[in-house]
Amino acid sequence: MIQIKDGTPGAAVFLAVLGTVLILTPGAAVSALVRCFGLVLIMIGTFRFVPQLHSRLHHAAGNAALVSSALTVGAGFLVMLCPEKAASVFPLFAGILILLIGMVHLMHALAAKRSGDPAARMMFVFSVITLICGAMICLNPFSAVTTLVRMIGVILVYNGITGFWMEAKHC
Q1: Phi-psi region of 117 (alpha: psi -120 to 50; beta: other; left: phi over 0)
Q2: Is 25 helix (H, G, I), strand (E, B) or coil?
Q3: How far apart are CA 136 and CA 144, in angstroms?
Q4: How far is CA 4 from the centre of its chain?
Q5: Does some domain include residue 3?
Q6: Which one, 28, 58, 75, 145, has the greatest CB density within 10 A?
């Protein structure tokens, strides 16, 4: 007989439901998360901007802080208006970094081949796979984000189901 204690099953069900939502609507989840980030930028910029307006000090540091605050608010509005483009910036940087790492690995593979290392062929294959992955992320960064969100959703569903099952068996 299955007996359940505490509120752990509620957490397990919540994780499974959240994971299902992420799997079914990754774009909406990313968009909502990015819009929340934009709102935070607007709030931070506003909270820094308003005191600067009331300040009687007109010096370079005060002016720089005023401009910085205004730019933060502007960035927040841009993120709110174009969440997909904003979300694609982060994986684009990751894709470029992965491409650079792949190039470094490729140089190591070529050096290994010149020195007669028997692992050079596998090093070359891994380098090419890394370069392909980096290029795929750079070519379609928003898709990379939605794929990542789906993977997180699958992990959450798995975690929710196994957590519920383990808690039921443990009682």
Answers
A1: beta
A2: coil
A3: 8
A4: 35
A5: no
A6: 145
Specify the long-range contacts of residues 20-23, CB closer than 8 Å, at least 24 apart: 20/153, 20/157, 21/153, 22/149, 22/150, 22/152, 22/153, 22/156, 23/150, 23/153, 23/154, 23/157
| Residue 148 CB-density burial (10 A; 0-12 exposed, 13-18 middle, 19+ buried) | middle
Judge whether 2 lies within some domain.
Answer: no
Query: Cα–Cα–Cα angle for 36, 37, 41, nearest 5°?
Result: 115
Residue 61: which residues within 8 A CB-CB, separation 6 or more? none
Residue 32 belongs to what domain range?
A: 8-170
Q: Confirm if 42 and 80 have CB atoms less than 8 A apart.
A: yes
Residue 46 lies inside a defined structural domain of this protein: yes
Indicate whether 104 belongs to any domain.
Answer: yes
For the chain, how many structural domains are there in total?
Answer: 1
The pTM score is: 0.58
